[in-house]
Amino acid sequence: MTTAVNRARTRLDVVEMEPQGFNDKGTMELVEVKVNAQSEDLNAILSDASPSIHDRDPKRVNKSLKVIFEDVIAEPPSVRSFDNVWLWSHAVFEVSRLWIYRFISFLLAVPVSLAAGILFAVLSCLHIWLIMPSVQLLLINMHWVQTVWGSILNILISPLFTSVGKSCGRITVHLAKDEDK
């Protein structure tokens, strides 16, 4: 018995939105980018463990840091500066925010990442090799305490509170206002 293996060619079209730049209104314009992948390339795409260059906050951790010029500086309609002053201040704000962030992240990103990696590695090691085995050892050896405590609750405390509940369950309270003048 012979079986023929039919390998179908699979094509994957992925549409991503990439930032193009700011338009006249100062808002970011997005451009649609299509990526085509054949079935052989699919495994390479799906198994890529490197972080995404385009979406660096996939879990939206830093939603509060999406600051634009209009969030910081706004002129009411009653007082306005010259249009060129507004445009230049907008440009200076965006450029300085971007380049100062890049400079500070260039200086701090690697050392802070190293420190965070060491901290999480130590915490993970402590959790895996010290805390969880201790908790499991405690739970295994304290099974008799759980049995005794359950028996005490069922024999002494549960009937006491059941009888108090039944005794007090028939109590009714009526509120009335005295109308003294």
From TrEMBL:
Phylogenetic lineage: Eukaryota, Metazoa, Chordata, Craniata, Vertebrata
Q: What does this protein do?
A: May act as a scaffolding protein within caveolar membranes. Interacts directly with G-protein alpha subunits and can functionally regulate their activity.
Example GO BP: caveola assembly
The organism's place on the tree of life at top rank: Eukaryota
Name of the coding gene:
CAV2_0
Q: What is this protein called?
A: Caveolin
PROSITE patterns with a match to the protein in the record: CAVEOLIN (PS01210)
Which family, according to UniProt? Belongs to the caveolin family.
Q: Does the keyword Transmembrane apply?
A: yes
Look up the signal peptide feature and give its range: none
Look up the record and report any one GO term of the cellular component aspect.
focal adhesion
Its placement in the membrane is given as: Peripheral membrane protein
Going by the UniProt record, its keywords in alphabetical order are: Cell membrane, Golgi apparatus, Membrane, Transmembrane, Transmembrane helix
- Specify where it is mainly localized: membrane
* Membrane-spanning parts: 106-132, 144-162
GO molecular function per UniProt? molecular adaptor activity
Query: Which compartments is it annotated to reside in?
Result: Cell membrane; Golgi apparatus membrane; Membrane, Caveola
